[in-house]
Structures are given as C-alpha cells and as structure tokens.
Amino acid sequence: MTRRIDLVGIGTGNPGHVTLAGLRALRAARLVLVPRKGQGKEDLAHLRHAILAEAGATARVVEFDYPTRDEALPYAERVARWHDGIAARWAAAIGDDPGPVALLVWGDPGLYDSTLRIARRLDPVPELRVIPGITALQALTAAHAIPFNTVNGAVTVTTGRRLRDHGWPDGADTVVVMLDGECSFLSLDRPDLWIWWGAYLGMAEEILDHGPLPGAGDRIARTRAAARAGHGWIMDTYLLRAPGSG
User: Fold this and answer.
1) Dihedral sign of CA atoms 84, 87, 93, 97 in order
2) Rg of the chain over CA atoms, in angstroms?
3) DSSP states along 148-163
4) Which DSSP helix (H) or strand (E) runs through 230?
5) In 10 A of CB 3, how many CB atoms?
6) Are 127 and 6 spatial neighbours (Cβ–Cβ below 8 Å)?
7) Which residues pair with 127 in a beta bridge?
8) Cα–Cα distance between 178 and 236 in angstroms, integer?
9) pLDDT, tens digit only, all 246 positions of the chain
10) Distance between CA atoms of 213 and 61, rounded to whole angstroms?
C-alpha cells in the first residue's frame, strides 16, 4: 500500500480554484485516482482530467467506479458500507504503487466531505496530507456577493434531511444547507426568510437565484429539476437568512 495520499481540494468546478499548493501536489504525484460516478455524470471525471492537464501533471491516472448504496439498509449503515466499498476500490486501484497518490476532491476535503473517513479505512492507513480547496460555501457567498455570517450571529451548516425533519435550527441566524436533493426549504413555514441558491458553482453552467422564500422557493425548485434533467446530475447549495438580522 502507498505510503502517502494527498487529498487535493479542487473547488467547485473552476480550475482556477485549485491553489498553488494543490498544483504542486498534483505535479508531484506518481498516481492519481479519478472516480467514475455513473452514467450521466461523466462531466465530473472530465473536469478532473482537465485540471490535471492544466496543472501539467504527469502521474499515471487510474479511474475507478463508485459502488452503489444499498437503499434497503438504514441510513447510517448504508453510508458506512458504501464507504467500505469505496475504500476497497481505492486499495485495488493503488495496488503496490509506492506513491505519492493524489485524489482530486470536489470542494474541500475537510468540509462536508467523506474522503478523509474513507482514507482511514485503508489498511495500513497511509500518511494523509490535506490541501484545502475552495468550498461550495465560499463559492456561493462570493457569487451572490453576500457575507457568510451576520454580525455576532450563529451559522448552522446542515443537510436537507435535517432541515426537513427538524425544521429551523434553534439559535441560528443563518442556515446553509448542503446535500439537499428534495428542496427541503419548501417545508419551512417562514415567510420572513430569503434564500440565496446556486448550482454548478464556478462552472460555465453556473445558475444563481435569490429572493424571498415564498415565491423564490418554487421557482428554484423548478429550475433545479430542469437543470438536473438536462445535465443528468446537479450539485447545488443554498443559504437562508431573514433580512435585517445583521
């Protein structure tokens, strides 16, 4: 097994999001793993190849297929077994290559990403080096030219599942939602809220919308459904806040 794996944050679709440290790591790698995430999501692999070409990387590139989740299992067990399966495919792809091995991680390896958890399933666990990247949170707030937080206000980063099941988090002035395939903002009875939404952030296909949640919410849901149908996949995130809260 390789002695070191570099987890390189590559931002949200714009090759310009890769830091100088990330470029150096890609150029130093002997092997780069590129995931294939299924039919209709080829763009995600193509983007990684484009970043490698722009970086001038000369590493051997090995693509691997992602396993599928067993939807019949409880959520936590389903995710744990899925991560086990991904780690096994990493190990098979790496083989006896001494490394360093690099993986290009969408966004940032340390924020709302499971790459570190998967890497620690390898046996033996290699040295892990994390090169931070631009996150979807940064790309979203930059695209809308809004601050991430209010003055002295709390920010909660959560999932659509938790927003839908538990409602607005206690004590939060700002809520940022990741991984929401069901437009859970539509479940909130909060006409005072505004939403700032973005999909394909940083890419040529970037879509932005914002406005009062009543009205904007339905419009965003329709836009999201059409974009997903057109591309075969979508990555999006959004921020909720009551105007005037600081």
Assistant:
1) negative
2) 19
3) SS-TT--EEEEEHHHH
4) helix 213-231
5) 12
6) no
7) 4
8) 7
9) 568 999 999 988 788 889 999 999 999 999 999 988 766 567 777 888 989 998 899 999 999 988 888 888 998 899 999 999 999 999 999 998 888 999 999 888 888 789 999 999 999 999 999 999 899 999 999 999 999 999 988 999 999 999 999 999 998 999 999 889 999 999 999 999 999 999 999 888 999 999 999 999 999 999 999 999 998 889 999 999 987 765
10) 44
3-state per-residue secondary structure call for 30-46:
CEEEEEECCCCCHHHHH
Please give the Cα distance from 84 to 117 (Å, whole number): 10
- Which tokens belong to 215? 């009205």
Distance in angstroms (rounded) separating the CA atoms of residues 9 and 115: 11
pLDDT score, position 12 = 87
- Joined tokens for residue 9: 């944050």
- Start-to-end C-alpha separation, the chain: 51
Nearest to 107 by CA among 89, 134, 130, 81: 134
Distances (CA, A) of 125 to 26, 81, 92, 105, 217: 21, 18, 14, 18, 44
Sequence-separated (6 or more) residues with CB below 8 Å from residue 160: 177, 179, 180, 181, 182, 183, 184
